[in-house]
């Protein structure tokens, strides 16, 4: 532990050793959604009463957010799987570099502090570094909400001249891409305590946005959707608290499905209703030969006739999510034909290609298009995943490889999933964790 910050270090030199070739079979559960949790942790800053979020994923980002809230004034603790806050007596709206630089939702946290105090200072966000991850739409929302910004290449300071800022209109659409998930939540939090009705044009409708909107609405904030055209937010000067459940992680559900499917196995996700899979993912899975069967409020996932090649593209919810593209790429390495995936959200999200090739997959990227020629025999190798889903893709391929693989990138795996490795083991995977790797 790092005493000063009360946090686990941002590196983990352990590695996972995977003896490939074991079919995964069985039942498991899915953690609370990492990405939804991160946005709710920021929204908790706005509550004027105690707030509890059950189902908090046991990942480093939960601890980083706990520390950010405590250091900026909101008393916060994690008790079991509950993230509990009580309202601040005073705020210190400075997000320390060592904390803000470790998570992707720093600008969203900053927006909550700005809404509370009229000022905030924060470092540029961290999170996975698979490509440039811009925050211009977050900054535009802060300016629209009346803040004056001082932006350097490492930090942002924002200050509103008057605590009585007026309702505002902002556009969450990015220049090259569609709506920004993070910037939509940033704008929502900025508007939640303002007098009057603010409008967010081209809002994202990712579950992260919908769930945060629902929690704010339960707290007394007026939320009106105009489809995907606009989200109108009517502020209130008192936001109530309460207890909320973080929905299960659709990205972990997809990961477990693909991990079982590549081994020819079956997994039952007890707490993950089939309806929680985005429509685009269901369609891609169906094309790829993966069946999702509703069972007692959960989902049985299987691939009875083996993988099939697909042509698909990532996109905004409910399309096929970018955070499952690397794992699908690993799976498609075993489909007996050529697959193509166009990555439209993060056009150079290709950090998984190197590790997959090292394991034997015939995969390459040409611009934003990833081509997978299968089936290619996979053999054990020593590879490193440099972000959450790259490490996960390598792990999935290693499960189907002949021989033993070493997957480095434990910090990234732990950042994405609190318990993926024990879950895979319980399903029949042969995994060991090597304490320290050179
Ligand atoms: C913590 C969290 O929830 N992370 C998720 C969130 O990230 P994040 O909040 O970064 O995702 P956004 O929806 O904001 O970003 C999507 C796209 O918009 C661009 N963009 C974003 C903001 C901005 O101000 N300007 C801009 O150009 C990005 O570079 C990217 O190409 O959504 C992504 C897309 O579903 C997921 O991959 C991440 O796992
Ligand atoms: C990219 C991801 O996370 P983050 O935005 O936290 O880096 C992810 O969840 O795949």
From TrEMBL:
InterPro entries (UniProt xref): Enolpyruvate_Tfrase_dom, Enolpyruvate_Tfrase_sf, MurA_subfamily, RNA3'P_cycl/enolpyr_Trfase_a/b
Catalysis: reaction(s): phosphoenolpyruvate + UDP-N-acetyl-alpha-D-glucosamine = UDP-N-acetyl-3-O-(1-carboxyvinyl)-alpha-D-glucosamine + phosphate
UniProt xrefs under Gene3D superfamilies: Enolpyruvate transferase domain
GO molecular function, one term: UDP-N-acetylglucosamine 1-carboxyvinyltransferase activity
Keyword Transport listed: no
Pathway(s): Cell wall biogenesis; peptidoglycan biosynthesis
Pfam families linked to this entry: EPSP_synthase
Location in or out of the cell: Cytoplasm
Keyword set, alphabetical order: Cell cycle, Cell division, Cell shape, Cell wall biogenesis/degradation, Cytoplasm, Peptidoglycan synthesis, Transferase
EC number: 2.5.1.7
Enolpyruvate transferase domain sequence ranges: 19-423
Family membership: Belongs to the EPSP synthase family. MurA subfamily.
Function recorded in the entry: Cell wall formation. Adds enolpyruvyl to UDP-N-acetylglucosamine.
Protein name: UDP-N-acetylglucosamine 1-carboxyvinyltransferase
């Amino acid at each position: 532990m790092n005493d000063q910050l009360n946090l686990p270090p941002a590196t983990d030199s352990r590695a996972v050793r995977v003896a490939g070739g074991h079919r995964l079979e069985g039942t498991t559960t899915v953690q609370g959604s990492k990405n939804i949790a991160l946005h709710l942790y920021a929204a908790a800053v706005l509550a004027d009463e105690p707030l509890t979020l059950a189902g908090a994923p046991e990942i480093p980002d939960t601890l980083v957010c706990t520390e950010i809230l405590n250091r900026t004034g909101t008393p916060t603790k994690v008790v079991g799987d509950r993230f509990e806050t009580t309202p601040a007596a005073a705020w210190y709206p400075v997000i320390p570099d060592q904390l803000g630089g470790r998570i992707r939702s720093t600008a969203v946290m900053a927006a909550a502090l700005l809404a509370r105090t009229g000022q905030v200072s924060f470092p540029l966000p961290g999170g996975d570094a698979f490509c440039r991850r811009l925050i211009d739409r977050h900054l535009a929302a802060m300016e629209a909400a009346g803040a004056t910004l001082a932006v350097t290449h490492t930090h942002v300071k924002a200050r509103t001249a008057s605590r009585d800022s007026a309702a505002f209109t902002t556009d969450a659409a990015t220049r090259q891409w569609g709506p920004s998930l993070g910037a939509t939540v940033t704008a929502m939090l900025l508007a939640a305590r303002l007098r009057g009705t603010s409008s967010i044009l081209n809002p994202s409708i990712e579950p992260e946005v919908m769930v945060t909107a629902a929690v704010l609405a339960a707290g007394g904030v007026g939320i009106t959707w105009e489809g995907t055209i606009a989200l109108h937010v009517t502020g209130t000067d008192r936001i109530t608290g309460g207890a909320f459940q973080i929905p299960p992680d659709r990205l972990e559900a997809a990961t477990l499905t693909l991990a079982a499917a590549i081994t020819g196995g079956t997994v039952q996700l007890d707490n993950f209703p089939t309806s929680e899979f985005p429509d685009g993912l269901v369609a891609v899975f169906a094309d790829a030969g993966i069946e999702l069967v509703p069972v007692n409020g959960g989902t049985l996932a299987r691939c009875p006739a083996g993988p099939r090649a697909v042509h698909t593209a990532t996109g905004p919810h409910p399309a096929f999510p970018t955070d499952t593209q690397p794992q699908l790429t690993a799976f498609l390495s075993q489909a007996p034909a050529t697959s193509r995936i166009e990555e439209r959200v993060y056009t150079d999200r290709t950090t998984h290609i190197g590790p997959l090739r090292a394991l034997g997959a015939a995969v390459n990227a040409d611009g934003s298009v990833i081509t997978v020629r299968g089936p290619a025999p996979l053999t054990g190798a020593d590879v490193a995943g440099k972000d959450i889903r790259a490490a996960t893709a390598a792990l999935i391929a290693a499960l189907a490889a002949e021989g033993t693989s070493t997957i480095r990138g434990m910090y990234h795996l732990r950042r994405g999933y609190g318990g993926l490795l024990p879950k895979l083991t319980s399903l029949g995977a042969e995994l060991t964790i090597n304490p320290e790797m050179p």
